[in-house]
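User: Just a sanity check before I run the rest of the batch. Below are the structure tokens for the first item. I only need the designed sequence back.
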């Protein structure tokens, strides 16, 4: 078969992946094309019959992604409703007070990393506002961080006392910092990275012997993801390129020189959204969703995967 049908026409064979980008199983199947709300372009998605993961293919170029994430129109930068860096910092802190999210996950992940890592030098990749870097510092790590978003770097500096480097996470960065870290944290980052550039291989290069990597990502095939299907809120190319199951994440790291230590799934939802939508009726859908997400996490089908991997 030389082509596959998509929602916007035919996909030429040259645009078909030979292998799964995660587990390298041959001939992943075309799933559907998702039109981006950012640039109105359709992005083809493929699913793997072996590991269950899905991914965008062809993978956007590094230049396209760099321009997308450094643009003032990027999703993270647009979430800031103020221009002054101090006001942006106060806004980020207030959002976390009203809906504890990053601080909860950061403390748990940092403490787990501390119990697993062979030393105390850590790297926070895509460090955002700095909640995770701060948790790593509180856990006793010496922390480096990289972040492309300018506003996020300024907030991070106020949050932690140091500003992240404005460097992309790529093979060149890994080569220049080879064997430098005992622990590396990527929270809500790996789903954004082009897998054809082998970011997991770069993690292996950066870590010292027996170093540990912590990954937090949306859980493709969580109960909520399965319920939403193609309308999964995390299917948002080119922002998200990779959609991992626990199996696909495990096999992606195993095939690149890592051993899985621990997996858990958690769920987070901002229930204020229900209040804005349903008003006085908001407690009813809120309680229903809380129960659903609670059961999901107990069954290892929560919204997000937390995985820990040791360099062999």
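Assistant: Here's the designed sequence for the first item:
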């Amino acid at each position: 078969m030389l082509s596959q049908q998509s929602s916007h026409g035919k996909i030429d064979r040259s645009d078909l992946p030979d292998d799964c980008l995660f587990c390298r199983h041959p001939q992943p199947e075309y799933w559907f094309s998702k039109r981006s709300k950012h640039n109105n372009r359709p992005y083809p998605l493929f699913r793997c019959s072996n590991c269950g993961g899905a991914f965008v293919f062809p993978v956007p170029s590094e230049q396209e992604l760099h321009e997308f994430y450094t643009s003032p129109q990027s999703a993270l930068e647009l979430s800031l409703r103020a221009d002054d860096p101090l006001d942006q910092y106060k806004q980020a802190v207030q959002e976390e007070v009203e809906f504890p999210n990053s601080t909860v996950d950061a403390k748990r992940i940092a403490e787990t990393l501390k119990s697993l890592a062979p030393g105390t030098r850590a790297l926070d990749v895509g460090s955002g506002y700095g909640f995770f870097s701060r948790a790593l510092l509180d856990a006793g790590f010496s922390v480096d961080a990289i972040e492309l978003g300018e506003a996020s770097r300024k907030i991070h500096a106020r949050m932690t006392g140091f500003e992240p480097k404005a460097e992309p996470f790529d093979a060149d960065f890994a080569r220049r910092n080879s064997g430098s870290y005992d622990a590396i944290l990527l929270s809500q980052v790996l789903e954004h990275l082009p897998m054809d550039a082998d970011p997991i291989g770069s993690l292996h290069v950066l870590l010292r012997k027996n170093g540990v990597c912590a990954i937090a990502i949306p859980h493709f095939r969580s109960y909520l993801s399965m319920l939403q299907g193609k309308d999964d809120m995390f299917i948002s190319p080119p922002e998200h390129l990779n959609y991992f199951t626990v199996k696909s994440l495990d096999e992606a790291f195993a095939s690149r020189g890592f051993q899985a230590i621990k997996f858990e799934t958690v769920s987070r939802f901002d229930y204020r959204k229900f209040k804005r939508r349903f008003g006085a009726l908001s407690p009813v859908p809120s309680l229903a969703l809380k129960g659903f997400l609670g059961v999901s996490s107990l069954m290892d089908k929560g919204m997000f995967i937390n995985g820990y991997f040791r360099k062999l």
